[in-house]
């Protein structure tokens, strides 16, 4: 959640992967791209596959990240095949969460407005037109945004500057011989030598191998990917043997299309050579692994790739062999090892798979595997395995998309795809994919129109996502159809969910009587069918409705029943909502201390599972409690945090709209007591709190009177310490520098400087810059004595 909220709260972290190998050469290109970024909104790196466009873009982004305080992000598009998901992919890469049904482009424009930011769009060639349209839309509306794209051809928009990324320079055959100790100044040779050293630590350029090395770089036209693949072969071959086999392979493959560029033929030849060096079973594994998108784990390899020539117990050895040959890239994520094919290598394997006539069969096996994973996650969505299942689904999101796409593309598989999309309901909600999940379900509903249990389930699932987006019209429409279908087919469990979400709509429309009746019918059905998920969802909402009506005893009893169900199943996420609900009622009864404790317990859970909406409700209740305790500075600051949270979610209290009256009462009372100027200042300080500090502030255990007296002193009676950056800024304030001068001196934006100064004033309890200067001077004299 920290990465998400950092962007939500405007910290602008670097969303770039760490470099794991050295970056070689490209001094001229680096300087040119940086220069162009200072004056151009869009810079596109073009060139043949394998030439190093992506690596150059990442190095540029790393080098210039301090010049973009609004954030620097990498959006990897190689695995994205559906152009309709482009904007969603960009939003996900920027960790922007929005539950509303608004177009994603509108959300991007809103969140990036006024921010000096850089977006790296990597591998645009297969989505050229949609990338061009999106980039053009963004840069026309956002003058402070820069886009650095990589593509095999330009985007073709007016604001674009292009840089053709050429292969690395290598010694020409007719050049005078270069001394061995100077060969490393040649970028292609240096790359080969560095990658060779990674394979053979004792490798070095010598008089004996210098000619073979330069010949290899020459034969490979200086293409970085080709050079790296050739260097890997030193695990099994000498430099001379690599050169000999390259010569043989190139002569064999130059009979290909003469319309293709020589560099493309060279790259294909090298990959083909690597392919031929594999055993027959390794080639099969390479082909079959190419059916995955976004990587695979060992279980997936065993399940999808075994059979028809590969025994299941041989899969591990084959995967290991392909990792050693640098065909598969090994990656470790959260303690789990995954394998990935580089994009060019994956496409080569996919072509071989298609030529074998096995592509359709492998696609079906791929879909079936991820269908089972989705079904298992649905079964484990309520219990101790929930977090692990949701984490796995997030890692497999690209494969899940591919499986759904294949299902919807096969007339006889649409119902299976729709059922799978419903199994992924919690993934859509917790993974910040609500709009995407709704699109998958809507797409299936549009095709699978026959009355069936699958359609009935999809209707209420679609309604839940619409309610979370605060889109009641479509939600009511599909619930009405869902009710008729469930009653017609005798689907009592589905009818219970229809009643649950119909009740939620009734509460939103100000009809608690109807809502309570429907909730009670739903709860009875969920109890009868032993459905703990539906029961807890219903009990939480029924408790809120009873609380809203002032029925304290029933509200508490229902919330405690929900807690008991969660605890009996060792379930945390729904437990957070039960704690939240109980806290709302106890706050209404005046038990403010216990209510605050419950909300903080709930907040800790919601933070751990990345539930920004649940976190928002917790912060709401804590703000109301602060106002009840007359801690109005705290209430106002929490309202400021909430302003940022609800803008990120897309709407305030979506799904629990009846609670808005408490928010409005808190805001009006706090503003009245503090006065508008002080209220606005406190709210502004809340909006500027970084996410981690906002949560820490919400969870702090301070006495009620401390808020009125200013910030609590640290142990020993001293004022809270400043961070190193805050101290640096305080010293510049003491020297009399303006915000603009401070921003210039520290190479940060003026807005960032202003935010730091506001935070210093808030932390020290001061109201003026003069107080900062006086305090710093006193501290300096005290330290000197």
What is the CATH homology-level superfamily of one domain? P-loop containing nucleotide triphosphate hydrolases
Spatial gap, N to C terminus = 45 Å
Low-confidence stretches: 1-13, 249-265, 701-719
Strand content: 5-15%
The CATH architecture of one domain comes to: 3-Layer(aba) Sandwich
SS elements, strand count: 8
Mean pLDDT across all amino acids: 86
Give the spatial strand order of the biggest sheet. Answer: 1-3-4-5-2-6
Question: What's the helical proportion of residues?
Answer: 55-70%
Report the oligomer.
single chain
CATH topology of one domain: Rossmann fold
Report the major sheet: 6 strands, parallel
Described by the principal axes of the CA atoms, the overall outline is globular
Number of helices: 39
Overall SS class: mainly alpha
Instruction: Give the radius of gyration.
Output: 30 Å
Protein name: LuxR family transcriptional regulator
Pfam family, one: NB-ARC
Organism: Microbispora corallina
InterPro entries: HTH_77 (IPR058852), NB-ARC (IPR002182), P-loop_NTPase (IPR027417), Sig_transdc_resp-reg_C-effctor (IPR016032), TPR-like_helical_dom_sf (IPR011990), Tscrpt_reg_LuxR_C (IPR000792), WH-like_DNA-bd_sf (IPR036388)
Task: Write a structural description.
With 785 residues, the protein is mostly helical. Among the domains are: 2-164, Rossmann fold, CATH 3.40.50.300; 180-274, no CATH class; 278-357, Winged helix-like DNA-binding domain superfamily/Winged helix DNA-binding domain (Arc Repressor Mutant, subunit A, Orthogonal Bundle); 724-784, Orthogonal Bundle (Arc Repressor Mutant, subunit A), CATH 1.10.10.10. Helix content is 64%, strand content 5%. The chain contains 39 helices and eight strands. Residues 1-13, 249-265 and 701-719 have low confidence and may be disordered.
């Amino acid at each position: 959640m920290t990465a998400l909220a950092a962007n939500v709260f405007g910290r602008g972290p670097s969303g770039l992967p760490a470099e794991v190998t050295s970056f070689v050469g490209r001094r001229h290109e680096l300087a040119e791209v940086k220069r162009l970024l200072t004056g151009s909104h869009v810079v596109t790196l073009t060139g043949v596959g394998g030439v190093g466009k992506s690596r150059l873009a990442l190095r540029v982004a790393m080098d210039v990240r301090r010049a973009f305080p609004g954030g620097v992000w990498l959006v990897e598009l190689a695995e994205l095949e559906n152009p309709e998901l482009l904007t969603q992919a960009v939003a996900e890469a920027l960790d922007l969460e929005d539950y509303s049904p608004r177009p994603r482009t509108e959300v991007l424009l809103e969140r990036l407005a006024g921010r000096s930011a850089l977006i790296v769009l990597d591998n645009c060639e297969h989505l050229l037109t949609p990338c061009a349209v999106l980039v053009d839309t963004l840069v026309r509306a956002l003058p402070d945004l820069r886009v650095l794209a990589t593509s095999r051809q330009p985007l073709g928009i007016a604001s674009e500057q292009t840089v053709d990324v050429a292969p690395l320079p290598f010694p020409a055959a007719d050049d005078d011989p270069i001394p061995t100790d100077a060969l490393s100044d040649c970028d292609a040779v240096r790359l080969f030598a560095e990658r060779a050293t990674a394979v053979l630590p004792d490798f070095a350029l010598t008089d004996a191998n210098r000619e073979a090395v330069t010949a290899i770089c020459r034969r490979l036209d200086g293409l970085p990917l080709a050079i790296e693949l050739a260097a890997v072969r030193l695990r099994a071959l000498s430099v001379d043997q690599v050169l000999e086999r390259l010569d043989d392979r190139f002569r064999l493959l130059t009979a290909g299309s003469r319309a293709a560029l020589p560099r493309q033929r060279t790259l294909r030849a090298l990959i083909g050579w690597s392919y031929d060096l594999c055993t027959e079973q390794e080639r099969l594994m390479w082909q079959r692994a190419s059916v995955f998108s976004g990587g695979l784990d060992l279980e997936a390899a065993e399940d999808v790739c075994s059979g028809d020539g590969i025994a299941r117990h041989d899969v591990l050895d084959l995967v290991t062999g392909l990792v050693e040959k640098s065909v598969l890239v090994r990656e470790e994520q959260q303690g789990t090892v995954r394998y990935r094919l580089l994009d060019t290598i994956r496409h080569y394997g996919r072509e071989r798979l298609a030529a074998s006539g096995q592509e359709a069969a492998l696609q079906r096996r791929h879909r079936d595997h991820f269908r089972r994973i989705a079904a298992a996650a649905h079964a484990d969505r309520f219990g101790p395995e929930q977090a692990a299942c949701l984490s796995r689904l997030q890692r497999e999101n690209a494969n899940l998309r591919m499986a759904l796409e294949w299902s919807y593309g096969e007339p006889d598989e649409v119902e299976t795809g729709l059922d799978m999309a419903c199994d992924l309901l919690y993934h859509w909600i917790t993974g910040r994919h609500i709009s995407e999940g709704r699109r998958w379900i809507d797409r299936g509903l549009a095709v699978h129109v026959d009355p069936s249990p699958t359609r009935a389930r999809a209707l209420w699932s679609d309604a839940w996502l619409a309610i979370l987006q605060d889109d009641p019209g479509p939600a009511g429409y599909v619930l009405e159809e869902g009710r008729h279908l469930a009653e017609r087919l005798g689907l009592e469990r589905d009818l219970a969910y229809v009643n649950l979400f119909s009740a939620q709509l009734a509460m939103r429309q100000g009809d608690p009587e109807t809502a309570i009746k429907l909730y009670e019918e739903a709860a009875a059905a969920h109890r009868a069918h032993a459905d703990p998920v539906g029961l807890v969802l219903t009990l939480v909402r029924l408790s809120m409705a009873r609380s809203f009506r002032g029925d304290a005893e029933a509200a508490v009893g229902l919330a405690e029943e929900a807690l008991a169900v969660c605890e009996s199943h060792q379930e945390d996420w729904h437990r957070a909502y039960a704690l939240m609900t109980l806290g709302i009622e106890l706050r209404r009864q005046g038990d403010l201390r216990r209510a605050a404790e419950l909300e903080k317990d709930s907040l800790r859970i919601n933070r751990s599972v990345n539930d920004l909406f649940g976190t928002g409700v917790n912060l709401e209740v804590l703000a109301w409690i602060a106002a009840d305790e007359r801690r109005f500075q705290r209430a106002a600051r929490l309202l400021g945090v909430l302003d940022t949270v609800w803008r990120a979610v897309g709407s305030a209290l979506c799904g629990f709209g009846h609670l808005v009256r408490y928010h409005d009462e808190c805001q009006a009372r706090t503003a009245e007591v503090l006065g508008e100027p002080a209220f606005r200042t406190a709210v502004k300080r809340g909006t500027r709190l970084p996410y981690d500090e906002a949560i820490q502030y919400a969870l702090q255990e301070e006495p009620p009177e401390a808020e009125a007296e200013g910030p609590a002193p640290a142990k020993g009676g001293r004022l809270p310490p400043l961070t190193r950056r805050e101290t640096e800024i305080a010293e510049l304030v003491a020297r009399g520098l303006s915000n603009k001068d401070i921003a210039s001196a520290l190479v940060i934006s003026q807005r960032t400087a202003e935010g730091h100064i506001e935070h210093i004033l808030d932390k020290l309890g001061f109201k003026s810059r003069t107080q900062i200067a006086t305090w710093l001077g006193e501290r300096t004299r005290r330290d000197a004595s």
